[in-house]
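Here we describe the complex-level prediction in full. Unlike the single-chain runs in Section 2.1, the two entities below were treated as one system.
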Amino acid sequence: RPTIDRELLESLPNLKVIGNSGVGVDHLDLKMISSFGVKVTNTPHAVADPTADIGMALMLASARRLVEGCQIAVSPDTKHFAVDWLGVEVTRATLGIIGMGSIGYKVAQRARAFNMRILYHNRNRRRKEEEEAVGAHYCEKMEDLLQQSDFVMLIVNLTPETRRLIGKKELGLMKPTATLINISRGAVIDQDALVEALQSKVIRAAALDVTYPEPLPRDHPLLKLNNIIITPHIGTATVQAIHMMAEEAIANILAVLNGQPIPSEV
Amino acid sequence: MWYHKPVVNKELLQSLPNLRIVASSGVGIDHLDLNLLSSFGVKVSNTPFIVSTDTADLGMALMLASSRRLVEGYEMAVSPDTEYFPADWLGAEVSGATLGIVGMGTIGYKVAERAKAFEMKILYHNRSQRKKEEESAVGAVYCKKIDDLLQQSDFVLLAVNLTPQTHKLIGKRELELMKPTATLINISRGLVVDQDALVEALQNKVIKAAALDVTYPEPLPRDHPLLKLKNVIITPHIGSATKKTRRIMMEEMTESIQAGIAGLPIPHEVL
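The structure predicted for the assembly as a whole is:
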């Protein structure tokens, strides 16, 4: 917000720059904005740590059934804790990262400390030293990553190429014991296919910080499934991140207005 | 035995004259009267190391969930009343924050290994200081006085075992030493915390929040104040609750039992 459309740009003839907070720019028509001579900047550095943290938080919460557990712990009907109530392990499991940009790399750094086996799929392969530093194995074919991973985490940006990147076919390739985690954009997943996959136990569970739309309509099937956790797009929702994003956005805007090199021009 | 059942008391032991060994699940043995068992000539085993990584993972899960308000966020995401997601709804960052680990045994150390990857500053308090190389490997700084750890930490994580010395280790005084923006995480035993003092501290915002995998008793009575506070998350003692780990625990317990019955040296014997 606000929606950047033709009317708005026409009404602001002196507009020089749109300083976007956050890293995603899929909501902006870059061609159209460019045609008005307006620059666009984002805040890639401020978002990386908190978003990587949320990815880890979702993976751990889903694997260990944290939300369900909380509900049991406080439910008025709980008389004892069942001994055979189990989750799945994160330590030593295989994490497949789809999209190894700044955020993906920080997830890999964190996951490594849990002794996870790390696979990744990316447009380009990372340098050897970068791979070795986190023990990540490149999967040129996404199928290889999907078939081997216990946790699949989506950390791509939303582009025409990544729209519905994960659909029925991809979900079918995943292990039935696997969990899908999305901290990218809702539209990267074919949501209808995801609903079906979760209902039919084609995959074990999903954990989504992003959906399409946000929020989902209140009667959406995703809200009724018990093998899913959804958070309200809180990847950068920390006090520290909000400050950093504001500072980064302002630095970018000032650079444009002062004719200086722009730190994060899109 | 699983959890604390059955209760191993004098009556039970008298009724089982041929009992050779009690194999306890998990690492904690605070629920067993070792002197009593010894006086009946009954050996005790536990499953000490296999629970470590899962418990450390859960400690991290609780810290992240609490800090980022994951459970609240989930409730908002699925609530029938939600029309939009507010822009000013914020949590606090884990990356770069200060973690104080009270009890740097196997589990505490594994938490430190994980927290380091989040670029956390790590302080620890322990009966004894760890070796220099062990400290350097995780960047942990020893706090001989627990007060120093409490005053500097954004997250205080309890990973001690329950002994007479650690009973109510964290009480009113300790909670007041903590920052008002700090979170207490307990993956040890409920009795390590003075629960009444914790309730008061949370109600009066002396500390920001708590995340507990363990309470006393388990479960808490359904009218307990801890269940009503908004700044607490409680999980039902699931530190070691994963398929793989439970399977290995069963295997270890079975091995110990077989050895105990055969009169052979017992793996994981508690002496």
